[in-house]
Design a protein that fits this description.
single chain, about 130 residues, alpha+beta, Alpha-Beta Plaits, four-stranded antiparallel β-sheet, two-stranded antiparallel sheet, about 25% strand
C-alpha cells in the first residue's frame, strides 16, 4: 500500500480501512474461524480484483481490513463481497456459529470505512488553494 498503481486509464493510490462486526457483537470468531475467514477474504479479493494487505480479527467480534482497489471498484462493492461471501461460507462450514446468532446472519449489516492516503487532507487543500492562475 502507499505505492502508485497503474490501471488502464489511470494512476492511483487508493486504500481503505474497513471495519465490521459480528451480528449482536457475538464473540464467535475463534482462532479456527479467524484462520478460515482470512483465507476466504484473500480469495475474494483475488477473484474480485482488489488487494488486501492486512487483516485482523479483534476480540473475536470484529474484523479490520486494509484494502487497495482501482477507482472503478466501489467501496460498497468491496464490503458487500467480503461480508457476503465470507458470512455465507463461514456459516456453512461452521454451523455451530448459528447457535449464537439468529436469522442466519453472521455480520452486522453496517460497516465503517475510511480512506487512507499518503497526504493529509489539509496538505491537499493548501495545494489546491495555492495553484497558480494564468
Amino acid at each position: 500500500m502507499g505505492v502508485l498503481r497503474h490501471g488502464r486509464t489511470c494512476v492511483f493510490n487508493i486504500s481503505y480501512h474497513i471495519v465490521w462486526s459480528t451480528k449482536y457483537r457475538r464473540k464467535v470468531l475463534s482462532s479456527i474461524i479467524e484462520t478460515r475467514l482470512k483465507e476466504i477474504l484473500i480469495n475474494v479479493a483475488k477473484e474480485k480484483g482488489f488487494e488486501i494487505s492486512e487483516i485482523e480479527v479483534g476480540t473475536k467480534d470484529h474484523v479490520r481490513v486494509l484494502v487497495s482497489a482501482i477507482p472503478k471498484i466501489s467501496i460498497s462493492y468491496i464490503a458487500k463481497m467480503m461480508k457476503g461471501i465470507s458470512g455465507r461460507l463461514l456459516l456453512k462450514e461452521f454451523p455451530e456459529i448459528s447457535k449464537e446468532l439468529w436469522n442466519g446472519e453472521l455480520w452486522n449489516p453496517s460497516y465503517y470505512v475510511e480512506t487512507i492516503g499518503s497526504i493529509s487532507e489539509e496538505a491537499i487543500r493548501k495545494y489546491i488553494q495555492n495553484q497558480e492562475k494564468e
